Amino acid sequence: MKLCMIGTGYVGLVSGVCFSDIGNDVICVDRDIKKIDDLKKGIIPIYEPGLDELVIKNYRNKRLKFSTNLKDSIAKSDIVFICVGTPTKKNGNGADLSQIYNAAKEIRSAISKFKIIITKSTVPVTTGDEIEKIISHKVSKKLFSVVSNPEFLREGEAIRDFTYPDRVVIGTNNKKSNKILKNLYSPLISKGAKYVNTSRRAAELIKYASNAFLATKITFINELANLCEKINVNIEDISIGMGLDKRIGGRFLRAGPAYGGSCFPKDTKAITTTADKYKTNLSVIKSVIKSNENRSSLLLERVFNILNGKIKNKKICFLGVTFKANTDDMRDSSSLSMIPSLIKKGAIVNYYDPTGEKDDFKKIKNVNFSINIDSAIKDSNLIIIHTEWNEFKSINFKKKVKNKKFIIFDMRNICSPAKMKELKIKYFGIGC
Ligand code: UDX
After folding, report:
1. Given 18, 28, 83, 263, which residue is catalytic?
2. Are 426 and 381 in contact (CB under 8 A)?
3. Would you say residue 259 lies in a domain?
4. Which residues form the pocket of ligand 1, taking CB atoms under 6 Å from any ligand atom?
5. Which of 176, 268, 314, 427 could form a disulfide with 420, with the two C-beta atoms 3.0–4.6 Å apart?
6. Tens digits of residue pLDDT in 109-140
7. 323, part of any domain
8. Which of 149, 226, 252 to mutate to test the pocket of ligand 1 (most atoms within 8 A of CB)?
9. Within 10 Å of residue 363's Cβ, how many Cβ atoms?
10. Rounded to 5 degrees, what angle do the CA atoms 384, 267, 158 make?
11. Residue pair 321/356 in contact by the 8 Å Cβ criterion
12. The domain containing residue 350 runs over which residues?
């Protein structure tokens, strides 16, 4: 089929490339000329393992094209995916949908034959109704159908999550559109993905509800970790013991420094804003938001206690600063609040991240980027493991750290407390 992806960010680029890799003709459109030129040269704007090879392969075999001409690209396509950003509004109240509605206005001026218009971006419930209204101002409803098809792609795992999804959710009551989309996704369904056809609003809500539930699961285990620290229990045992219950499941049940990223913080806020708009109070999710926002200061208190209140001039190393491993994304990463707070208390912070130096810290005095692990840890008083990159799992700290009284605070529980004890390393984990 002929597809047009509007927006070449995490969702549009990954979905577009993966659709081309299963045999569709895809045009990825963006108004950012430099981004499109770079993509044509195989320069990928996002860190996503394996994406570059797929882009080059499909661009070479001409199934994947890049363009800045939206009108022309829509005219050449049967299905148009809206994959533009829906960031949290500056006032923090819900999602900014201006890019979505602009795309709808541009689409309506390019429709001459039947088109399926799909919202793949995460959009609040009833956004599809709004898009339908915008387009039907100028185009007969017989010439288009607006469908919700939310993505469930995790950064760092996006290609796998596209290729082997648990489910494909298609929100439409239009039989023709449903048939066409079932055909589009048939290669994934034949590999085991479940196909769920529901109403458009239900599909929009499934996305938010899924992310809010995963954020709730993580916050639940993070709060239990706080209790475990007080009663000398290891949270990892709780995660395992709980997770073996198939009704609970072990994934997204690992205690950490707080959830971050471009989705959970945004989507939890957006769903509670939507509920408030309809006079319904999602109190559980509101408490999840609050608990997660408080977590960084709670962990900073632990750092303070670990260093016996003496932070001034202490050399603190952060191993990893992004919101999780296998991404270069800093959005809502807990390091963004922790590092400046430690600097304010007089600490000196060296950090190493496999994805390189971060603009977020360039302007902060006494925060230094180290080009490798050895130089980051060697003079440390305290080493904080902030992200769970594999390369942090086998460091010989005893050999590499000069200061023999160094301490490790492992915010991802990637080290074994028993091994640390055996090596006589002062070690603190999360929830143990
Ligand atoms: C998430 C959803 O998983 C994905 O389905 C949706 O499409 C986009 O948002 P992403 O934000 O890329 O994906 O990251 P994810 O892997 O879900 O992790 C989100 C946050 O939760 C990270 O900060 C991560 O460190 C944290 N996390 C995750 C935990 O603290 N513990 C866990 O067990 C899992």
Report:
1. 263
2. no
3. yes
4. 151-155, 211, 214, 218, 252-254, 256, 259-261, 263-264, 323-324
5. 427
6. 999 999 999 999 999 999 999 999 999 999 99
7. yes
8. 252
9. 7
10. 70
11. no
12. 295-428
What predicted TM-score, i.e. pTM, was given to this entire model? 0.96
The CATH number covering residue 249 comes to 1.10.1040.10
Q: What is the pLDDT of residues 210-262, one digit of tens each?
A: 999 999 999 999 999 999 999 999 999 999 999 999 999 999 999 999 999 99
Asked if 263 is an active-site residue, the reply is yes
C-alpha of residue 405 to centroid of ligand 1, in Å: 34
What phi, psi does 200 have (nearest 5°)?
A: -65, -45
Identify the CA nearest to 353 among candidates 384, 396, 307: 384
187 found inside a domain: yes
Dig out the tokens for 273 from the structure.
């804003």
In 109-199, where does DSSP find H-type helix?
Answer: 127-136, 158-163, 175-184, 186-189
Q: Do 264 and 317 fall within a single domain?
A: no
Minimal-distance CA residue to ligand 1 atom 32: 252
Report the amino acid identity of residue 183: N
Closest-CA residue, ligand 1 atom 10, reads 154
Average pLDDT over the chain reads 96
